[in-house]
Amino acid sequence: MKTGLITTFVAILLVSAGCNRNEDLADAYGNFEVDETVVSSLMAGELMQFDIEEGSSYQLGQMVGFTDTTDLHLLKPELYANRKATASKTETISTQIEVLKNQLSNIEREHKRIINLVKAGAATNQQLDDIEGQIDVVHSQIRSAKSQYAGVLAQLDVIDAKVQQLEEKIRKSRIVNPINGIVLTKLAEAHEFTAPGKPLYKIANIDQMDLRAYVSGSQLSMIKLGDTFTIKIDGVNGKMIEYPGKVIWVSSEAEFTPKTIQTKEERVDLVYAVKIRVKNDGRIKIGMPGELWLNISE
Which of 42, 54, 67, 69 could be bridged to 172 by S-S, CB 3.0 to 4.6 A? Predict the structure, then answer.
């Protein structure tokens, strides 16, 4: 009889403990992650300078290195000299056009004089035809000169485009940090040869961290974009540290429970991933586990 009472008492304690433990369990678990930015090379060449250190902070727009631009700079004088020589042609052609216009003006005055002479019988029709032929020739010469002038301007446009392309290549040779953040991984070293698209380093802004947690279908109805819930991480001496977190993403498709993730319902096969953004005070690290509490809202 005494043994039966002890067994019943132990069973009640276990059930009671199990209920209390469930109340103390978070609604979902996950790990913190951050959006990584992979910075790649835009130009081929030797990394002449590459001032990147893992764990160091860098600012948006900060220049952290550059590739060799010796060949590009050597092309500059050639392009500028070519442009200067081509531009000089425009002056020559402009002068030629002015000369032809003055010649045309003189011939047109002579043309009017001959017309009057023909009417007075003092000049022949042959003389009139000759002067009109001269007018046609000069008009043709002016059109040809203007065509040459347009061709020279087109050549200048081509040279200017090449100069712009050269300047753009020089600009792209500079490695400029794209965001404020901390370097997570360094993938290249100074004086290595790089190529367009080759990754150089990974950087992330860890001022805000995202907890990717997994909830069941029944919990999903309690979560919508913009909601604020409590996120907890392990603290010192077993105490939990709380943060307000905002839901920024909810998966539209279910997936099988990841092996490393637990949920409030132990036998859930399909879960939905959610992301909760938390402002990081420096204690949250990438990959750190976190807890989502749906019953505590801000």
Answer: 42
Task: Please state the separation of Cα 44 from the chain's center in Å.
Answer: 19
| pTM reported for the whole predicted model | 0.71
Same domain, residue pair 194 and 245: no
CATH number for position 129? 1.20.120
The answer to whether residues 207 and 280 touch, using CB atoms and an 8 Å cutoff, is yes
Domain, as residue range, for 215: 27-34+206-297
Q: CA 226, CA 178: separation in Å to the nearest integer?
A: 28
Q: What 3-state DSSP class applies to 40?
A: strand
List of residues 6+ apart from 267 with CB closer than 8 A? none
- From residue 25, alpha-carbon distances to 20, 29, 233, 294 in Å are 9, 10, 13, 11
13 within some domain: no
Residue 15 inside a domain? The answer is no
Longest dimension (CA), the chain: 156
Amino acid 262: pLDDT: 53
pLDDT in tens, 102-111: 999 999 999 9
CA angle centred on 35, ends 216 and 178, rounded to 5°: 165
Distances (CA, A) of 258 to 120, 170, 254, 261, 268: 110, 47, 12, 5, 11
Mean per-residue pLDDT, 215-224: 89
Q: Which residue has the tokens 């009417």?
A: 119
Count how many domains the chain has: 3
